[in-house]
Write the structure tokens for this entry.
Amino acid sequence: MSETKQSKWDISDMDSWTAEDFPLGAVIPDSGNSRDYVTGGWRSERPIRNVDTCIECLLCWIVCPDTAIRVADEKLAPDPDTFNLDHCKGCGVCANECPVEAITMVPEGCELPEVK
Amino acid sequence: MPTQTTVASTGNTVVAEAMRQCAPDVVAAYPITPQTTIVEEFAKFVAQGKVHTEYVCTESEHSAMSACIGASAAGARVMTATASQGLALMWEELYIASGMRLPIVMANANRALSAPINIHCDHSDIMGARDAGWIVLFAETAQEAYDNTIMATRIAEDPEVLLPAMSCLDGFITTHSIDRVQVMDDESVSEFVGDYEPQNALLDVDNPVSHGNFAGLGGPYFEFKKAQRLAIDRSKAVIGRVGEAYSELSGRSFGFIETDMMDDAEVAIVVIGSSAGNARHVAKQMRAEGVKAGLVKVRCFRPFPAAELAEALKGAKAVAVLDRSETFGAEGGPLYTETRSALYDLETRVPIVNYVYGLGGSDVRLELMRSVYTDLSDIATGAAEPSGLQYLGAR
């Protein structure tokens, strides 16, 4: 998918960079790389879509403050690719704005045994 | 060799002259006593077409440093000047300038901080900002203020460094007194500082970059801070090299510290700025009276010359560190605590006493300096060291 394409500035091994490796003064030396910067880890709730209720109006795609709703051929991408969880921060705007209440927010991490 | 003209001038006038000779692309500033005449004279140079600088009159020092940061990120050579409350108002931008690795050069006319309101000299302003990641040079005289401004430009812009640098001169004492100064010809200064070649300039449209980015939540903020530490550590070698080159050019020496009569000194004063003059004068008097007195003047405070101080002071029997700022509740003034720490690894313990002096421009008379050397002589011959911080000349 084009949205996962790396920018010219390859940060894929950034976690192993030392203080000497980062660009001077915290500049970002290339454009179009926020897609490479995975921010979905901030999320405490994730959106779930009810495909039976959804009317494919794409209002969720319009209101998403990030680029976390995937659309192809004027339709929402089918499960499990509907939401780009690398960038969805769980703000819930999509669920709030959905005219048919087809999106619900569920707590993240509930599948983990220690928080059951 | 440069053509040097001897002029009678205030510190501020020659700082403005040095700025003109360094030809900054942008100066953004706000006036504040006792710095005002620096930017006033510089603005006059701009108005007269003697320097081609974009001069920005801002509405505060917060805005002045913000404008400097923007201009420097754009790729300009940037200078400014401030003092006291102005420096305090710049506080958050000081850290941004150094974190973004922008080689802004700023003159700071050392002045006390309110309250109560006071416009006269002490070092509380810069000492509050000493850990902001700037290189900090101090001047004793107008000559050193001129020289430091030129050296600061080349040091800050060195590709090994790329950190902002501050050139400090004592409010009124150095900023406003007429002093004898040798000023170099424009071409020699211009050649010495060279052209600034910015890295990651916002105006380099062929190589777009984004400045002021986020590095939190598990991001590399920690690594960026370490990179700043590595840069200011590297700056020591650069400052040394630039100081040597400047000495060769101008015939005036520069050291991280400057020592007088320290070869066999038994008692020594460590001091910053204009008060070194009185200390030197009294040290010479004491020498004539048979006391082996010496003086260490710190000219570069950041990076801190710990090794140089340890080397200079290791043979002394008693040392006084004079701080012109208060660090309420701390063990002592900033120069004292760091000098004392610098002496920790010496094999022989050197007795060291801290004096806070001259706050808010309180006069530092010769007899006060003499009392310090007398105290030290007593300690050197067996008297007990006074415990805790001493106030020099306060009732």
